[in-house]
Amino acid sequence: MMRQEPRSPYVIQLYEWFEHPRKFTLVMEYPEPCESLLDFIIRNPELDEPTARVIMRRAVLAVQHCIEHGVFHNDIHAENFLMKKNTLELKLIDFGCGQLLSSDGYESRIYLGLMTYCPPEVFTDTRFHAVPTNVWALGVLLYEMVNACSPFANRMEITQAKVTFRNANLSKGNNILAVLGGGLELVT
Questions:
Q1: Residue 174 lies in a domain
Q2: Do 77 and 141 contact (CB within 8 A), yes or no?
């Protein structure tokens, strides 16, 4: 589904695949030189807002592209983005938890994504939905980029959703919205 036109420059491309009796072989794009976004964040703790804005805009466009193609990635986090080192070009990877987009949502008891990016409704409701889950995960990603740590450590912190910004260099006011710089409306 992700191979259908138009293709996104922010989603890894699958060039070819081969079926074998017990496995599949996937031939995929690999941007050189690259590293995971998590490795980039570790090397660059507390990213400045202009850099975080560029990265977030690309991450939002990647996730939006998935939704427009009827795919719920279901595992948005820093390790699932590759970044080209010299250009900050971003590629969403690893669709292993991906599902077809469903307007009915998904059963909370079988949430597949990384727990630290899990939205509160997985713990409080019987079902969760793709777009709000993506927005939550992108918010956690942004927090990690500008604060060099995760906003939540456990289920209770996730359901309380109280965020403390640790980076004193962030602009004041609507910190998350200021860093996104208008990218949030791309997901709605």
A1: yes
A2: yes
Compute the distance between CA of residue 13 and CA of residue 184 in angstroms, rounded to an integer: 25
**Which two three-digit tokens encode residue 67?**
């939704």
Whole-angstrom distance, CA of residue 59 vs CA of residue 131: 14
Q: Is 75 a catalytic residue?
A: yes
Kindly state whether residue 14 falls inside one of the protein's structural domains: no
β-bridge mates for residue 28, sequence order = 14
The total of structural domains in the chain comes to 1
DSSP state of 11: B
Task: Please give the backbone phi and psi of residue 34, each rounded to the nearest 5 degrees, phi first.
Answer: -140, 170
- Answer whether residue 12 is part of any domain: no
- Whether residue 4 is contained in a domain is answered as no
Residues 6+ apart with CB under 8 A from 188: 131
Question: For the segment 41-87, what is each residue's pLDDT rounded down to a tens digit?
Answer: 999 988 999 999 999 999 999 999 999 999 999 999 999 999 998 89
Could you say which of 39, 75, 94, 104 is catalytic? Answer: 75
